[in-house]
Design goal:
It is a single chain. The protein is α/β, with parallel strands linked by helices and 264 residues long. The protein folds into two domains: 2-43 and 215-248; 50-196, no CATH class. It has four helices and eight strands. Strands 2-4-5-8-6 form a five-stranded mixed β-barrel. Strand 4 and strand 5 form a beta hairpin. Helix 1 packs antiparallel against helix 4. The longest helix has 45 residues, at 215-259. 22% of the residues are buried. This is SURF1-like protein.
């Protein structure tokens, strides 16, 4: 009765079914790795955001690469904004997914070094985004700024192409090395997303806090894949039993037809 399992159809079905089991198990393991990564990132971000602000030069210096543990750390800097060298970062969106610019203003520290400050998002003046927008002025004179320390943006990390031939005072990426060459002065590695002082008007809109990644979703997906893996052999057995039942019913029908008396 089980000879049908050797047919081409059932051999293929069996091979596919039992190849799916390790595949689904591996997908579940991968989802658990993603859960661990996201949980660790959430903890890292939470720790960084809750830490007390420290002077920016404790964590970065010219040429420094901001590390994973330094990212989002709250830092302070004392100096003044240099709006003459201000640039805007193209194709950035706000919380409403509206495309505009980020305002990148050099902040000159008391010792002459420069810290790049992302002052927030402003809308574009028109759909072309080629004209330099009107930007509200920052605090004048000597001031203290606070912000979240961020690593330099790169094409590899962000996927944003660093286009050439852009309109004057417009850039695609926030990169301290690139700005150091443009300004001709030492620039601290990375940049800060300003959190204080808050703008007097509605713009620039300060860049929002990083949110938690949904690690629980990966946890659920992992068990979902493992349940699928467990369900494959169960489903295979059900199909075999159904096929066996159908074959027996067909044989019983044939036997019944053969034993019926011939009409007179």
């Amino acid at each position: 009765m089980y000879r049908f399992l050797l047919s081409r159809q059932w051999v293929i079905l069996t091979l596919v079914a039992f190849l799916l089991i390790p595949t689904m198990i591996r997908l579940g393991i991968w989802q658990m790795h993603r859960y661990d990564e996201r949980t660790a990132r959430n903890q890292l971000v939470s720790t960084a955001l809750s830490a007390e602000p420290v002077p920016v030069e404790r964590l970065t210096s010219p040429g420094h690469t901001v590390t994973r543990n330094e990212r989002y750390r709250s830092v302070t800097a004392k100096g003044h904004f240099d709006t003459d060298e201000e640039v805007v970062v193209r194709r950035r969106v706000n919380a409403d997914e509206t495309v505009g610019f980020h305002v990148l203003t050099p902040f000159v520290l008391d010792d002459g070094k420069v810290l790049l400050v992302n002052r927030g998002w402003i809308p574009a003046d028109g759909p072309s985004q080629t004209a330099f927008p009107k930007i509200p002025a920052p605090a004048a004179g000597e001031t203290t700024v606070t912000g979240r320390l961020m690593p330099d943006e790169t094409t590899a990390a962000s996927g944003i192409k660093n286009l050439k031939g852009l309109p004057d005072r417009q850039v695609m990426l926030i990169n301290s090395e690139q700005e150091a060459r443009r300004l001709g002065v030492p620039v601290l590695g990375g940049y800060i997303a300003q959190t204080a002082p808050e703008p007097k008007g509605d713009t620039p809109e300060l860049v929002g806090r990083p949110g938690d990644e949904d690690a629980a979703l990966n946890y659920a997906y992992a068990f979902q894949w493992w349940l699928f893996a467990a369900g494959v052999p169960v489903g295979w057995v059900i199909l075999v039993r159904r096929e066996l039942r159908d074959r027996r019913e067909k044989e019983d029908e044939q036997a019944s037809e053969e034993t019926e008396p011939a009409p007179v």
